[in-house]
């Protein structure tokens, strides 16, 4: 395994592991695959450096405890998680546990690959001092919303009123209110504070 160019994927879905291996290999990364955290512990050196893609639902050690385990035992790995069944609260917990990014399944191959490359490049450019500090990024939480909810929230944060948003999206104002309320509940922040929030402000709300 070479320097900072190691991509580790832990997922019990063989098709997901194959996709990640193909993506990593396409840009010259060494890719190591495991079906569980236990297999990872048995086959991966603790001083490895690189990026880990960790599924949130695994046989054996899984979810937030798995993130804590990896963060404690593999300080040279930047942790990213993905799941097909996570809400905003789970995303916040994952970020606070030590993950730096979250991806829904099915994920965008390009978006995932760019995030992995950025994480590995960041390690190569800076001296190794262990895992960087993590804050819950609103932009990551926004990915848990539906496309329509995300659009309405972005317009609301830009300062547009509900009636203006309704007119621009050809929706009834009550529909905008409902979508906004549902989005606010998923993000876990009060509606009155949402308009002034910037990326990175979600933690602690």
Automatic annotation (TrEMBL):
Q: Which residues carry this modification: 4-aspartylphosphate?
A: 55
Q: Which Gene3D superfamilies match?
A: 3.40.50.2300, Winged helix-like DNA-binding domain superfamily/Winged helix DNA-binding domain (1.10.10.10)
UniProt keyword terms in alphabetical order: DNA-binding, Phosphoprotein
UniProt keyword Zinc-finger present = no
Tell me the first and last residues of the signal peptide: none
Give the matching Pfam families.
Response_reg (PF00072), Sigma70_r4_2 (PF08281)
State the InterPro entries in the record.
CheY-like_superfamily, RNA_pol_sigma70_r4_t2, Sig_transdc_resp-reg_C-effctor, Sig_transdc_resp-reg_receiver, Tscrpt_reg_LuxR_C, WalR-like, WH-like_DNA-bd_sf
The Response regulatory domain, residue ranges: 6-120
Query: What protein am I looking at?
Result: Response regulator transcription factor
């Amino acid at each position: 395994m070479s320097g900072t160019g190691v991509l580790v994927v832990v997922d019990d879905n063989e098709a997901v592991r194959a996709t990640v291996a193909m993506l990593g290999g396409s840009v010259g990364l060494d890719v190591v695959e495991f079906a569980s955290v236990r297999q990872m512990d048995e086959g991966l050196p603790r001083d490895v450096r690189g990026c880990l893609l960790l599924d949130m639902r695994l046989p054996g050690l899984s979810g937030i405890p798995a993130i804590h385990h990896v963060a404690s035992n593999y300080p040279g790995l930047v942790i990213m998680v993905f799941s097909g069944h996570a809400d905003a609260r789970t995303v916040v917990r994952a970020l606070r546990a030590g993950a730096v990014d979250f991806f829904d399944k099915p994920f965008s191959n390009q978006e995932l690959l760019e995030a992995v490359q950025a994480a590995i490049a960041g390690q190569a450019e800076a001296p190794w001092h262990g895992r960087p500090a993590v804050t819950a990024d609103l932009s990551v939480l926004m990915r848990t919303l539906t496309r329509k909810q995300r659009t309405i929230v972005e317009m609301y944060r830009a300062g547009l009123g509900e009636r203006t948003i309704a007119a621009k999206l050809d929706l009834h104002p009550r529909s905008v209110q409902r979508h906004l309320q549902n989005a606010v509940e998923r993000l876990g922040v009060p509606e009155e504070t949402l308009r002034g929030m910037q990326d990175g402000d979600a933690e602690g709300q």
